[in-house]
TrEMBL record:
Pfam families linked: Acetyltransf_3
Superkingdom of this protein's organism: Bacteria
Name of the featured protein: GNAT family N-acetyltransferase
InterPro entries the UniProt entry points to: Acyl_CoA_acyltransferase, GNAT_dom, Ribosomal_N-acetyltransferase
Residues annotated as transmembrane: none
Domain N-acetyltransferase: 21-182
Length: 200
């Protein structure tokens, strides 16, 4: 199994020591660890996304990871975990992936103990880079509730453009949310990647 380092990280506090972070595939055999992670962050993660409602027990955790294993086998989606100092703390995924059409949608989640370290931005960069450079994806989307300021900031840090707002399009826990659609196009991503490389 591969692991991609995501460090060096911003410290969680002035007294925090160095912690290593890695991006790895998240697979059905890791259902118990996935459920424990979800239990730690259930309330926080579930503020804007329904993942904690879907992953309610060990069977549903395994089923969810199997769904993405099947999607990976069909080349229509993928899921990756983020481990911080050896503990699963969040993840990123291709909620949709259509290589023939050249489009995909990226999503994310994170438990509160790992917030503010830049983990989601770093992990999303890794998978977007793979999608654009290795697979030739032309359009990468990020769909987020307008109320989810942290996720909107990630889209901005990734160099995405806000395409528009789908007003009250997502009914979640009795509230209708405006959903923002952000995107980055393959040529834009390659250009920003080249600029970053030249600046080193």
């Amino acid at each position: 199994m591969f692991a991609i380092p995501l460090g060096p990280l911003r410290p969680a506090s002035a007294t925090a020591g160095d912690e290593s972070a890695e991006l790895r595939p998240l697979e059905p055999w890791q259902a118990e660890e996935f459920l424990a992670h979800m239990d730690r962050g259930r309330e926080y993660i579930g503020e804007y996304i329904g993942l904690p409602d879907v992953v309610a027990d060990l069977d549903s955790a395994r089923d969810y990871l199997q769904l993405y294993a099947d999607r990976q086998a069909a080349d229509s989606g993928r899921i990756y975990g983020i481990w911080l100092a050896g503990t699963l703390v969040g993840g990123v995924l291709f909620r949709t992936f259509d290589a023939a059409a050249g489009t995909c949608e990226v999503g994310c989640w994170l438990e509160p103990a790992a917030v503010g370290r830049g983990l989601i931005t770093r992990a999303a960069r890794v998978i977007i880079d793979w999608a654009v450079v290795e697979r030739g994806i032309h359009r990468v989307e990020w769909v987020v509730s307008s109320e989810n300021g942290a996720s909107v900031k990630v889209a901005e840090r990734l160099g995405m453009t806000r395409d528009g707002v789908l007003r009250q399009s997502y009914a979640y826990r009795g509230v209708r949310h405006d959903m923002e659609v952000w995107s980055v196009l393959g040529p834009e991503w390659r250009k920003s990647r080249a600029v970053a490389a030249d600046a080193r």
